[in-house]
Amino acid sequence: MNRRPGRRLGAWCAGLLLAGVGVVAGCRAADTDGVTPVPQLLAFLPWLLVPTVFALLCALLARWWPGLVCGVAVLGVLAWYLDPYGRTGEPGGPPVTTLRVLTSNVEFGRGTPALVPWIRDRRPDVVFVEECEYTCQATLEKDFAGTYGYRRAVRAAGSHGSLILSRFPLRPTAGVRGTMGMPGAVADVHGHPVRIQLAHPMPPLPRQVGLWHRELGRLRAFAAADPHTPTILAGDFNATQDHAAFRRILDTGLSDAAPLAGHGRTPSWPARTASVIGAQIDHVLLSRDFTATGARFLRVTGSDHRALVVDLVLYQRR
Q1: Which residues, at least 6 apart from 156, have a Cβ–Cβ distance to it below 8 Å?
Q2: What CA–CA distance (Å, rounded) separates 3 from 61?
C-alpha cells in the first residue's frame, strides 16, 4: 500500500517530462519550429536527453511500462538528431587558396577590448563582428587600420551595429535587410570573387518568433540567390541546426564550418556556461566551393558569446 503513492508520483513525473520533451522532439522530427517555447527549447535539443533519461528512471521505478516504451522512443529520436546536419564531404576540384575567418558577437561592444588581442593573435583574413556599436567600430578601425584596409559597416548603436574587416578588396553589396545590421560585400580573394555576408537575425524571443523566421528567411534568400559564386555567410544566427528555419539555409547548398571541422555540437552561447551546457548559434556557413580544415571557439571576456575562428580552403569548381 505504501508503494502506490510513490509509484503514482513517479508515473506523473515521467509523464509530464515525456510530454514536454516529446513535443520538442516531435517538432524536430516534423521539421518545424513550432511556437513558443518550442523554438527556445530546440536550441538545447541535445541537453533534453537529461530529462528524458530521468523520466525513464521514474517510469521504471513506477513500473509504468507504457511510459517506459514512450521514453525509449523519445530517447531514440533525440539520439538520431545528434549527428551534424548537411554536407560532410569535400569539394571535387583542385584547391586554389586558403583563408581564415573569425566571427564574434561582442554584446553591445562590451567584448571589444578582449576581441582585439584575439584578432592580433589569430590573424584572420576576414572578421565579422556583431553588436559592434560606434565605440567598437572606432576601436577596431583604428587599431587595425594598417592590417584590414577594407571594411563594410552598419553604423548604429547597441546591438544594431555590425562590422566586416577584410584583408581582401571589397565591392559593396546591399546586404540583408534586418532589425539589426547585416552588411555584405563581394571580396576579391586572390582573383576569385567570394560573396561575404554578415548574419545577425533577431533571436526567437516570445512574441517575436515570426520576425526571427522572416529574417532567417531573408538570409536563406541571399544564400539561394547566387549558387554559382563562392559564398561565406557568417555571424550570430540565433539558431542551431535543430531549428528548421536554419536548416532551410543549409538546404540551399551551404555547409556549417564547425561541424565540417569536427565541432558539430560545441556551444558558443551562453559563454559563461558553454563548457558545460549551451547552444551553437554562431556559425560560418560555406558554399560547396569551400571546406573547413580547423575550427576553434574563443572566450571573449565581456561578451555572452564565444568567438569562432575557422580555417578554410577554397577549391576551384568543376
Answers
A1: 133, 134, 181
A2: 10
| Distances from the Cα of 126 to the Cα of 100, 195, 219, 246, 263, angstroms | 7, 12, 19, 23, 21
Chain position carrying cell 517575436 = 208
Give pLDDT tens digits for 263-289. 999 999 999 999 889 999 999 999 999
Indicate whether 98 pLDDT > 90. Answer: yes
563582428: which residue's cell? 129
Give the H or E element holding residue 190.
Answer: none
Residue 14 three-state SS: helix
Q: Is the pLDDT of residue 2 over 50?
A: no
The sign of the torsion formed by the CA atoms of 187, 192, 193, 196 equals: negative
pTM (predicted TM-score): 0.95
C-alpha cell at 202: 533577431
- Is there a contact between 165 and 151 (Cβ–Cβ < 8 Å)? yes
Tell me if 101 sits within 8 A of 310, measured CB to CB: yes
CB 296 within 8 A of CB 303: no
Identify any residues that bridge with 307 across adjacent strands, giving them in sequence order. 298
Question: Which residue blocks in the chain are alpha helix, DSSP H?
Answer: 3-29, 38-42, 49-61, 65-80, 112-122, 134-143, 209-225, 244-250, 257-260
pLDDT tens, position by position, 80-89? 999 989 876 6
171 alpha carbon, distance to own chain's centre? 26
Rounded to whole angstroms, the Cα distance separating 99 from 292 reads: 10
DSSP 151-179: EEEE--SGGG-EEEEESS-EEE------S
CA distance linking residue 236 with residue 104, whole number of Å: 8
User: What does the chain come to in residues?
Assistant: 318
Q: How far apart are CA 162 and CA 177, in angstroms?
A: 13
Cis omega (within 30 of 0) for bond into 37: yes
